[in-house]
Each structure stands twice: as C-alpha cells, then as structure tokens.
Amino acid sequence: MKPWLSSVNKFYRLRKKLARRRQTKLSPPLILSAGFAGLILLGTLLLKLPFATEQSITWLESLFTAASAVTVTGLVVVDTGATFSGFGISVITLLIQAGGLGFMTFAVLAALSLRGHLGIRQQMLASEDMQETSLMSIKRTALAVVLLALLAEGIAVIAMTLYWLTDKGLTAAFLEAIFYAVSAFNSAGFVLSPNGLVDYQQQRFITLLISVLFVIGGLGFSVINNIYEQRRWYRLSVYTKAIIIATIAINIIAMTVLWLLEMNNPATLAGMPWYDQAINAWFQATTPRSAGFNTLDTGAMTESSAVFTFLLMFIGGGSMSTAGGIKLGTFIILLVATYAFLRRRDEVTLFDRTIPQDLVMKALAVTVVYLGLIFCGIFALMILNNLPFIDIAFEVLSASATVGLSRGVTAEISDGSQLILVFLMYAGRLGPLTLGYFVATPKKRHVRYPKTDIQVG
User: Fold this and answer.
1) What is the distance in angstroms between the CA of the first residue and the CA of the last residue of the chain?
2) How does pLDDT run across 109-124, given as a tens digit for each residue?
3) In angstroms, what is the C-alpha Rg of the chain?
C-alpha cells in the first residue's frame, strides 16, 4: 500500500473514532432529561414572578407546581385557582401542553422547519422519547401528535364553552374551557377548584367529556394514528389491537369493582341515583391509569378502593401517551410471558405473533426499575413523615405514575418529602427505562459465558 493511502486510511479511522466519542458524550436519555429539567426550571422562574400569583408562594411551591405541570401529574401544594393569576394559570397551561405532547415533539418540528430533514442522531433522540421503532416515521408521528392534540382540545373547548356559557359568561367559560381541555387531554389533572371535579360530579356532560379526553390521550399517539390510517380492525397492528382490548377490559373491570366497593359508602356513591353512581364509578375507574381528576373525594374512599387504585396507577396507559405507569403494553407483555411460561411454551406469542425476547426483557427491566423507584419513595417518605402507610404509598404511586390523585396529604408532608415527590414525578415522566439508561448506560458484551442454573420459585 502506498504511504499516502495508508495515511488517508488512518485519518478516516481517527475521524470516526473521534465522532463516536462525541456522540457518546450526550446520550438521548441525557438530552431528554436535561430538556425536561430545563422546562421545569423555566416554569419555576415564571411562576415565581410577582404578577404570576395572587398571593406570595415559596420557591419550593413554585418548583413543585412547575414540575407537576411539566410531568402532567396534577399533584398540588397550593390551590391553583385561588393562588395563581391569569398569567400564572396561562403558564401552567403551556407547561402542561409542552410536557404532555413531549419536549422532543416540539424539538423535532423546530428542526424540521429549519433544516427540512432530521439527521440520524436527531432521529435517534426523537425515537427515544416517542418510543418509535421506525426512524422514518418520526416526522409523521411528530406532526400527528400536534394535529391530534389541537383537534381534540379544540372540539372540547367549543363544547365546554357552549355548556358553561349561560352560567359563566363567554370570556370566563372560554378561558376555563381551554384550561380544562388542555389539562384533560394531556392527563394532567390540574383543576381550578380545591375540591377537584367533585363540584361537577352530577354534571354528566362535563364528567363524560373530560373522561373521554384523558382516555384518548392515554391510548397513545401511535395507536390513534394507526387507527386513523388503517380504519379496519384486521389491518390494525398487533400492538394497537392489544391496547384497545386491554383498555376496554380494564376499564370495565375497574368500573365494576369500584362501583361495588363504593356503592354503600355515604362519603362517595351511596347518596346518588344509580345512573350517577355508574358515571362517577366510570370516572374514578378510568382516571387512575391516566389523569389525576376526581369526581369523588379520594381521601374518603375505602382503603380497599385505594389499594385497587394502586394497581390501576401502576399499570398506566399506552406507550407514547400522556399517561404514566409501567405502560399498558409492558403489562400485556408480562401477562402473556407469564402465561407462556405456565403453559410451558418456548415462545411468547400474542395474536399469532411472536414477541421477541428483548421486548420481554425490556418489560421486566421497566417493571423492576419502577418497583424499585416506588419502594425507595415509600421508604423515604415513611421516615420523614408520621402519616398512615396507605396515604404515603398512595402519594408515592400517584407521583411516580404521574397520575396526580391524592388522599389530601400533599401539602401536609415535609419540604424534603415534597422534593422527593418532585423527583418521582420527573422520573415517572421520563420513564423508568430511560432513567435506568441515564444512571447506567448499558454496553453490549462481546463475550459469551457458559450457562448455569439458578433456583427460581
């Protein structure tokens, strides 16, 4: 080989090596984590401005509110409607929208408008947040996310404005409708009343409309996009079919269980006619997997209902949705993998399709990381607060699943505990697996070892 050709080859090898090093410095989880952290910091600063509130709030209260809005959780330490001015409520609304649709969705659209296309690194970054497996679908998904959100929220705003027009007047009805439409579709659970939506528990139109909004948002944008594109059941993807069936089944089962548990509780459903009981049971059954709204006093619900709500919050909604939890797809994989093992099958299948082993391992990893997060949160809050276990556990699960339901202790816990909840909301929005990658970036091993047996069960 000629000397000059050898030098050129060395130069290109060195260039590739340096390029790989530059790329590994900022991994997608790190950039996504920094993006959401920056959004929370910006929201904290804006909400601390004097004209953002009607009464002075602390930096911790501002941070907690901003984190709850960006992570679309809905836990609050101050009365949102009474504490914040019109400007402050507008900031919260924008934070909810940005956090719900995803920080990277806006970044993708901005990059597309400036450059006309995405590079491989930008596509990988977007796919990390959107949980898309096809890099070519990132652009289409980003646009679909925004269009779907604007369409659903726009219809809801018009409907709620017309419904409230007589009682509230045009301006007040319109502004309140915008706030609740954004909060509902993004599964944030923020309300303008200290009683949540308890005041609306007999306004069936509002409760059903809000529940439809957060159920749609909790399905996941990829599911809705697949339904819109295919429009035939047999054409839908396996994932879409699984999410639809599981959502219907879980919602019906949850509604039935909570109705039976609360129908004789005088503090919740006992005093209502059966049709209002059914609507409010439906609302309380669907909200834990996605939103933080409540038409019943959560703290007055029976402890058995609270424990059942634990499971619903833990499961969460669909991937690439505004919901939290381990995600419904993860839960489905765990169920079918367990069924396959009990049936002594070599492969995990769903709708006559084989689920790859790496997806099963990913589901296990998400669940283990999420359980570890919950345990650490409960353990820390039990040390710092003298409160009943069920209230602490409910608060931790609600924060880590970005649900926002509370048994009324959020403002009562210590400042250190509120900071822990801020971290749990942040970690829950990023996703347990993304957080795990951020803490310890995995590297593939190129060495295989002999197999061994470990006793299990």
Assistant:
1) 62
2) 555 554 445 555 555 5
3) 23
